[in-house]
Amino acid sequence: MSSVPDDAIISLVVFDMDDTLLGLNSVKLAYEVRPHTVEAILELWNIRNVLVALWSAGTEAYVSNMVDVVLLPAIHVKNPFFFFSRILTYEDTTNGFKDLNKICEVYDVPKERVVLIDDSIEQCNLNIMNGFRAIIVPPFQPESNLIDDRALVGLREKILA
Length: 161
Ligand SMILES: [Mg+2]
Prior knowledge:
By secondary structure, the protein is of the alpha/beta class. The protein has helices at residues 37-45, 60-75, 100-107, 121-129, 155-160; strands at residues 12-16, 22-25, 30-33, 51-55, 86-88, 93-94, 97-98, 114-118, 133-136.
Protein backbone atom coordinates (compact mmCIF):
# COMPACT_ATOMS: atom_id res chain seq x y z
CA MET A 1 0.00 0.00 0.00
CA SER A 2 2.97 2.26 0.52
CA SER A 3 5.01 4.10 -2.08
CA VAL A 4 7.65 4.83 0.54
CA PRO A 5 11.02 3.34 -0.32
CA ASP A 6 12.25 0.46 1.81
CA ASP A 7 15.20 2.53 2.98
CA ALA A 8 12.99 5.23 4.55
CA ILE A 9 15.18 7.39 6.75
CA ILE A 10 12.83 7.70 9.70
CA SER A 11 12.41 4.58 11.78
CA LEU A 12 11.19 5.75 15.18
CA VAL A 13 8.27 8.14 15.69
CA VAL A 14 7.68 9.26 19.28
CA PHE A 15 4.25 10.66 20.06
CA ASP A 16 3.72 12.99 22.98
CA MET A 17 0.61 12.03 24.96
CA ASP A 18 -0.95 15.05 26.70
CA ASP A 19 -2.48 17.62 24.34
CA THR A 20 -1.05 15.80 21.34
CA LEU A 21 -2.97 12.48 21.31
CA LEU A 22 -5.19 13.12 24.35
CA GLY A 23 -6.88 16.28 25.58
CA LEU A 24 -9.15 17.36 28.41
CA ASN A 25 -12.58 18.49 27.28
CA SER A 26 -13.09 21.41 29.65
CA VAL A 27 -16.85 21.42 29.03
CA LYS A 28 -17.48 17.72 29.58
CA LEU A 29 -14.61 17.45 32.09
CA ALA A 30 -13.47 14.28 30.39
CA TYR A 31 -10.38 13.31 28.47
CA GLU A 32 -10.76 12.54 24.78
CA VAL A 33 -8.60 11.01 22.08
CA ARG A 34 -7.61 13.25 19.19
CA PRO A 35 -9.38 12.54 15.90
CA HIS A 36 -7.35 10.53 13.37
CA THR A 37 -5.03 9.09 16.05
CA VAL A 38 -5.65 5.50 15.00
CA GLU A 39 -5.18 6.08 11.27
CA ALA A 40 -2.04 8.16 11.88
CA ILE A 41 -0.43 5.42 13.95
CA LEU A 42 -1.54 2.58 11.69
CA GLU A 43 -0.22 4.25 8.56
CA LEU A 44 3.14 4.71 10.27
CA TRP A 45 3.23 1.07 11.34
CA ASN A 46 2.54 0.15 7.74
CA ILE A 47 5.79 1.70 6.63
CA ARG A 48 8.58 -0.78 6.65
CA ASN A 49 11.02 -0.38 9.56
CA VAL A 50 9.01 2.26 11.35
CA LEU A 51 8.35 1.94 15.08
CA VAL A 52 5.98 4.12 17.06
CA ALA A 53 6.42 5.01 20.72
CA LEU A 54 4.35 6.99 23.22
CA TRP A 55 6.02 9.49 25.50
CA SER A 56 4.80 11.63 28.35
CA ALA A 57 6.71 13.61 30.94
CA GLY A 58 4.18 12.31 33.48
CA THR A 59 4.80 9.54 35.99
CA GLU A 60 4.43 5.92 34.98
CA ALA A 61 1.27 5.56 37.12
CA TYR A 62 -0.34 8.59 35.48
CA VAL A 63 0.57 7.53 31.97
CA SER A 64 -0.57 3.93 32.34
CA ASN A 65 -3.85 5.13 33.82
CA MET A 66 -4.44 7.50 30.90
CA VAL A 67 -3.58 4.78 28.41
CA ASP A 68 -5.83 2.17 30.08
CA VAL A 69 -8.79 4.41 30.92
CA VAL A 70 -8.85 6.91 28.04
CA LEU A 71 -6.81 5.81 25.06
CA LEU A 72 -7.38 2.07 24.73
CA PRO A 73 -11.19 2.08 25.15
CA ALA A 74 -11.48 4.86 22.55
CA ILE A 75 -9.47 2.98 19.98
CA HIS A 76 -10.99 -0.40 20.88
CA VAL A 77 -7.69 -2.04 21.61
CA LYS A 78 -6.85 -4.05 24.73
CA ASN A 79 -3.07 -4.15 24.50
CA PRO A 80 -1.23 -0.80 24.18
CA PHE A 81 1.70 -2.54 22.54
CA PHE A 82 -0.45 -3.19 19.50
CA PHE A 83 0.03 0.54 18.84
CA PHE A 84 3.18 1.48 20.70
CA SER A 85 6.44 -0.38 20.71
CA ARG A 86 7.24 1.29 24.03
CA ILE A 87 5.69 3.71 26.51
CA LEU A 88 8.16 6.20 27.94
CA THR A 89 7.48 8.26 31.05
CA TYR A 90 9.07 10.71 33.48
CA GLU A 91 11.90 8.31 34.19
CA ASP A 92 12.95 8.61 30.54
CA THR A 93 13.22 12.39 30.73
CA THR A 94 16.15 14.56 31.76
CA ASN A 95 15.12 16.98 34.52
CA GLY A 96 11.52 16.57 33.34
CA PHE A 97 12.33 17.38 29.73
CA LYS A 98 11.96 14.83 26.99
CA ASP A 99 15.44 13.83 25.96
CA LEU A 100 15.69 11.89 22.73
CA ASN A 101 19.31 11.05 23.48
CA LYS A 102 17.88 8.69 26.08
CA ILE A 103 15.50 7.06 23.63
CA CYS A 104 18.36 6.58 21.17
CA GLU A 105 20.14 4.57 23.86
CA VAL A 106 17.01 2.56 24.71
CA TYR A 107 16.38 1.63 21.08
CA ASP A 108 19.96 1.74 19.86
CA VAL A 109 18.86 3.94 16.98
CA PRO A 110 20.80 6.91 15.52
CA LYS A 111 19.39 10.41 16.06
CA GLU A 112 18.66 11.00 12.39
CA ARG A 113 16.10 8.18 12.57
CA VAL A 114 14.02 9.67 15.37
CA VAL A 115 11.25 12.26 15.20
CA LEU A 116 9.15 13.58 18.06
CA ILE A 117 5.54 14.67 17.53
CA ASP A 118 4.61 17.16 20.25
CA ASP A 119 2.27 20.06 20.96
CA SER A 120 4.81 21.95 23.04
CA ILE A 121 7.94 23.53 21.61
CA GLU A 122 9.18 24.03 25.17
CA GLN A 123 9.06 20.27 25.77
CA CYS A 124 11.03 19.75 22.55
CA ASN A 125 13.61 22.47 23.02
CA LEU A 126 16.28 20.21 24.42
CA ASN A 127 15.94 17.86 21.45
CA ILE A 128 15.84 20.63 18.85
CA MET A 129 19.02 22.10 20.37
CA ASN A 130 20.56 18.63 20.20
CA GLY A 131 19.79 18.43 16.48
CA PHE A 132 16.78 16.11 16.63
CA ARG A 133 13.71 16.58 14.54
CA ALA A 134 10.41 17.57 16.09
CA ILE A 135 7.09 18.15 14.39
CA ILE A 136 4.98 20.56 16.44
CA VAL A 137 1.22 20.19 16.17
CA PRO A 138 -1.37 22.55 17.70
CA PRO A 139 -2.54 21.46 21.17
CA PHE A 140 -5.64 19.26 20.98
CA GLN A 141 -8.64 21.13 22.40
CA PRO A 142 -11.58 18.70 22.35
CA GLU A 143 -14.17 21.26 23.44
CA SER A 144 -13.55 23.42 20.37
CA ASN A 145 -14.58 20.75 17.89
CA LEU A 146 -16.68 22.89 15.59
CA ILE A 147 -14.24 22.04 12.84
CA ASP A 148 -12.59 18.68 12.38
CA ASP A 149 -9.20 18.47 14.05
CA ARG A 150 -6.87 17.34 11.26
CA ALA A 151 -3.50 17.87 12.96
CA LEU A 152 -2.63 14.17 12.60
CA VAL A 153 -3.74 13.88 8.98
CA GLY A 154 -0.85 13.76 6.54
CA LEU A 155 1.67 13.23 9.32
CA ARG A 156 3.25 10.35 7.44
CA GLU A 157 4.14 12.60 4.51
CA LYS A 158 5.57 15.25 6.85
CA ILE A 159 7.67 12.67 8.64
CA LEU A 160 9.03 11.22 5.42
CA ALA A 161 9.59 14.64 3.79
MG1 LIG B 1 2.00 17.69 25.35
